[in-house]
Each structure stands twice: as structure tokens, then as C-alpha cells.
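Quick one, probably user error.
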């Protein structure tokens, strides 16, 4: 079985040798190993790369607030990503200034880290995997979209693990309406109940 150090070295190797698209640094997962709960996000952003940890930027603040609201602290869960480097795109403005922004990881980029994530799951040996958004959902399950399955507990035969799909916390930024917020909050409460059954 791999160790956390093996995983770190493999992520570094993949990220630092990748030349097909622009990327802006890489990180590993964070938190205890083993752990009963594993959260899997999409890919790190700028703040995550700066601080070397997943979910420590704006989406991370939202995430941690809701996590704490159900009585769980960050120190007690493992948090990782589907793609371990920061996918970026750059645009040159009229003044010649270049701006850098995040982009979603491509399917081929997610594939680069397939074994790394599988091995991290084996090492963490969680009772439940909470997927955050469509990228980890499609990577780990047969579901086609988060809309069809969020807020419910499923047993995934292939992984032999419970999976709880949730919207990505940054979806709250894109869906600034009360209805979405209420549904998102409800999903966290459902997660709280699901955790009691494990
Ligand atoms: N969004 C993610 O999906 N992962 C992170 O680590 C940070 C933001």
C-alpha cells in the first residue's frame, strides 16, 4: 500500500511534468489518515496552492462554515481533490496585462490522477466519501449530474463505500437565490443524519 509520502511524490511528478495545458502549482490532500469521512473536491485554486492545503480559499470558508454547523471540525476529516494541480487559463487584456484565472480540469487531467486518488481512498479507508460538485461525482460514480443525486446516501459497489454527493460550495456563489441556499443547507443536514447511521 502507498504511503502519504508516495502520494505526494507521485502528484509532484505528474504535475511538474505536465505540459499539455497551463497549470499553476499543486497540492496534496489534508487531514488524518485513516479517517471515517473523506471529502473530495475538484481542483485547488490560487489560495490552496499558496497555503498548500485544499479548501482554504473562498469556497473553503463556505465549506468549513457548513462543516462546523453540523458539528464536525476540519481536523477530524480528510479533504482531497480529483485533480491535484491548479488548472489555469491566461488572458491578455488590451493594455497587455495578463490575467490568470481558474478553469475546470479536463477529463484527461482528471485521468492523470486516477491512481493517486484511488490509492488515497485506500489509505484513508473512509466509511463515507462526500463528493463536492460534478467533477469528483463523475470520476467516482456513474451519476451524470449532481442535480439527480445530491443530498442522498448511496452504497457504491465498485468502491465498496458509501457516497454522499453534494454541490460544490462555490455553487452558492453562482446560484445566489434563497431556494438554492435552502436546498444546500438541507443537504448538509441530511449529511449530518447520514453520518449518524454509519
Ligand atoms: N475547490 C476545490 O474543488 N478544491 C479545492 O481544494 C479548493 C476549491
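Nope, works fine. Designed sequence:
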Amino acid at each position: 500500500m502507498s504511503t502519504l509520502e508516495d502520494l505526494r511524490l507521485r502528484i509532484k511528478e505528474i504535475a511538474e511534468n505536465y505540459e499539455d495545458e497551463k497549470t499553476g502549482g499543486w497540492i496534496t490532500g489534508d487531514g488524518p489518515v485513516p479517517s471515517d469521512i473523506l471529502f473530495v473536491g475538484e481542483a485547488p485554486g490560487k489560495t490552496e496552492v499558496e497555503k498548500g492545503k485544499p479548501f482554504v480559499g473562498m469556497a473553503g470558508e463556505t465549506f468549513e462554515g457548513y462543516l462546523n454547523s453540523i458539528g464536525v471540525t476540519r481536523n477530524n476529516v480528510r479533504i482531497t481533490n480529483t485533480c491535484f494541480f491548479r488548472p489555469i487559463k491566461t488572458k491578455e487584456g488590451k493594455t497587455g496585462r495578463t490575467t490568470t484565472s481558474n478553469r475546470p480540469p479536463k477529463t484527461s487531467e482528471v485521468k492523470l490522477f486516477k491512481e493517486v486518488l484511488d490509492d488515497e481512498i485506500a489509505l484513508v479507508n473512509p466509511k463515507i466519501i462526500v463528493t463536492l460538485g460534478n467533477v469528483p461525482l463523475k470520476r467516482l460514480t456513474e451519476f451524470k449530474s449532481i442535480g439527480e443525486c445530491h443530498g442522498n446516501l448511496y452504497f457504491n459497489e465498485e468502491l465498496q463505500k458509501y457516497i454522499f454527493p453534494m454541490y460544490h460550495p462555490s455553487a452558492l456563489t453562482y446560484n445566489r437565490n434563497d431556494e438554492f441556499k435552502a436546498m444546500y443547507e438541507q443537504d448538509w443536514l441530511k449529511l449530518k443524519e447520514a453520518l449518524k447511521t454509519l
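The helical segments are 4-17, 46-51, 58-69, 107-112, 114-124, 134-140, 171-174, 178-197.
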